[in-house]
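---------- Forwarded message ----------

FYI, see the Transcriptional regulator, LysR family record below. Original note from H. follows.
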Amino acid sequence: MDLDLRKLRYFVTVADTLHFGRAAEELHIAQPVLSRQIRALEHDLGVSLFIRDSHGVTLTDAGRQLLDDAGPLLASAHAVRRRVSAAAHGSRRLVVGFRAGIPVIPAARVFEAQHPDVVVDVQRMEWDDQAPMLLDGRVDVGYVRLPIDETGLRLTPLYTEPLMAVLPAGHRLAGKDEISETDLAGEPLVWHAGPSTQPTRRPHPDAGLRVRGVEEKLEHVAAGRGISFVGRSETVFYSRPDVSYVPVPDLAPAQIYLAMAASRTSPLADDFFAAAQATAEITAECGNYEMWQRANDAVSRHG
């Protein structure tokens, strides 16, 4: 029995709202029609997906499992439609996603030498959309930073990079050659998610500010609202006088992976994976401030 993707989309909407009336409004269909479609899906699967009683609507264990699996499946179907549409218009394009500070150009140059007829486009991703963008086809492959929800993804490790503390310029530890995790104990943290995602062994107090990208993070730190952490490559591309970046050697390094949707088969994406692996060391060194400083000094000497 093949899953009906329309019924699956209806199910996800009900599961997200836990209210048939609101789900019907979102889907622009009548509530009785929605109820019939959900019952039909339950019949197709041979399980109950929802418990409906006087207290409202809740998911069964089977419903929770289907909700976990439905996202990648629907995203994969959406990605297929995007790629088919692009092919119909004669487009030869590979969209590469990247996180702040990670340069795509080393791998792109190697890939384009093999495929001069393919345009390599780039799209920046943030921590909260790196998995959805890969799954829904907005990007074909992506340089991602862990942690990431690995459901429905194929992941290949590329390299690691040191983590740096981000401090206000007037902070007591600003300008140090290096500091330890203990030196920062008790400092409020400007971060993008909950305590379980913090890179330190002991969680920091939450500054109460949720940020998506590095720019927001730096704005809050510069204003003295807390400290934060970034990968070394981000310090190279986001230099500013009102914050100080200090190495914290006892923190585990940031992990950089290349990812794509596991359901996708693409010789072009496979070739980009190979190019990214072959150039991983060069890509990692693009985040090395000392390398850039040496290069600038060499240019100055020959200028």
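H. also flagged this: The chain has a mean pLDDT of 90.
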